[in-house]
Design goal:
CATH topology of the largest domain: D-Maltodextrin-Binding Protein, domain 2
Mean pLDDT: 85
Oligomer: single chain
Strand content: 15-25%
CATH class of the largest domain: Alpha Beta
Number of domains: 2
Helix content: 25-40%
Strand order of the largest sheet: 1-12-5-11-4
CATH superfamily of the largest domain: Periplasmic binding protein-like II
Number of helices: 13
Largest sheet: 5 strands, mixed
Structural class: alpha/beta
Radius of gyration: 20 Å
Length: 349
């Protein structure tokens, strides 16, 4: 099962039975040099100027898959030029080079983009009901029952990803810092091998690697599961030049609307997700695929910043306190809330 870490995380999100939140009212945030959060809400455009091209950064065809499963990739009134990336950092580099207009990342890259001074805003976002990451122990490590027991232990995670964010917040909840553990920085796909091989005492893992590992190591355990909304959130992001371009903003509004409609459709057809992800990709039995989809819970679009406001700020503060970013950030500047009304319309139409 040789898959990249971002792909595994995306599968965890895609495999959630999708439901759209009804709490998508427009909120005001701090003013900045980008689009103001008090501007008129974006609505679904009646037309997009001819010749408009929206350059979309995708991660291993996640957006394309969601739209395709829901038949929302048909009759687009503009051209979509996709670029493929593996992970948020590579996508941020493409934004820096002016190569893409929009894309999607998790909470951590959004914070690092702001810390680096990149003119990028989150215009829409979704969160799963249950966290993707679980804390696994190495075989026979019955001395680890939870986050508090990680002090002095070798903990495997992938630095600069949502896995590190999940660990930072979980450690903070029990009064610990990253310096209190012995970090073992590994690609997500190598973490369970490190646990099995004895080079780590515990590690952050995602499905389907978690189930495979526990099945092969009966004395290992999943002792915790992450629950913070920042650990299970993804954002549609766009550059300031895109958001100041009326034609591209019209195309982006249509694209976001199609994503919301796709999530509504997949809520009603969870079997499509189970088949596309776990049966066709991982060749799991259909009944096990259906169980995993059910276990992952629902995924829905959320108000920005809404429930994320406090947690995103806390996460940025933790990255600074642990020396990952150099200065304190005001994360309210990461969001363009004009699209909230559009999301609400599409979710309830």
């Amino acid at each position: 099962m040789k898959r990249s870490a971002p792909f595994l995380i995306l599968l965890a999100l895609l495999s959630g039975v999708v439901a759209c939140s009804s709490d998508a009212s427009t909120r005001s945030g701090a003013a900045d040099a980008g689009p103001t959060t008090t501007a008129a809400p974006v609505t679904v455009p009646t037309s997009v100027p001819a010749g408009t091209t929206l350059r979309v950064g995708d991660q291993l065809d996640y957006l394309k898959t969601v739209l395709h499963l829901a038949h929302q990739d048909e009759d687009l009134p503009y051209k979509v030029a996709y670029s493929a990336f593996v992970g948020g950092p590579a996508m941020l580099q493409a934004f820096q080079a002016g190569a893409i207009d929009t894309g999607f990342v998790a909470s951590t890259p959004l914070i690092f983009a702001q810390a680096g001074g990149q003119p990028i805003r989150a215009v829409a976002g979704w969160a799963s009901e249950h966290g993707s990451y679980g804390l696994l122990t190495a075989p026979g490590h019955d001395d680890i029952k939870g986050w508090a027991d990680l002090k002095g232990k070798r903990v495997a995670f992938q630095q600069g990803t949502a896995g590190e964010a999940a660990l930072l917040q979980a450690l903070d909840d029990v009064g610990l810092k990253l310096s209190d553990v012995k970090a073992v920085n590994l690609p997500q796909t190598q973490i369970t091998a490190a646990l099995q091989g004895g080079s780590a005492d515990a590690g952050l893992s995602v499905e389907p690697l978690t189930s495979v590992y526990l099945g092969q190591n009966p004395t290992a355990e999943k002792v915790e599961k992450t629950s913070e909304i920042t650990d299970r959130s993804f954002f549609v992001i766009a550059s300031d030049p895109t958001l100041h371009d009326e034609a591209k903003t019209a195309a982006l509004a249509d694209y976001v609307g199609r994503l919301v409609r796709s999530f509504v459709y997949l809520q009603k057809h969870p079997d499509l997700v189970a088949q596309a992800v776990y049966v066709q990709t991982y060749h799991l039995p259909a009944d096990r695929a259906a169980d995993i989809v059910k276990e992952n819970g629902t995924t829905g679009f959320i108000t920005l910043p809404g429930p994320l406001a406090r947690q995103q700020q806390r996460l940025a503060d933790l990255f600074q306190a642990n020396g990952e970013i150099p200065q304190k950030l005001d994360t309210s500047q990461e969001f363009d809330t004009r699209f909230n009304h559009l999301v609400q319309q599409e979710a309830t139409s």
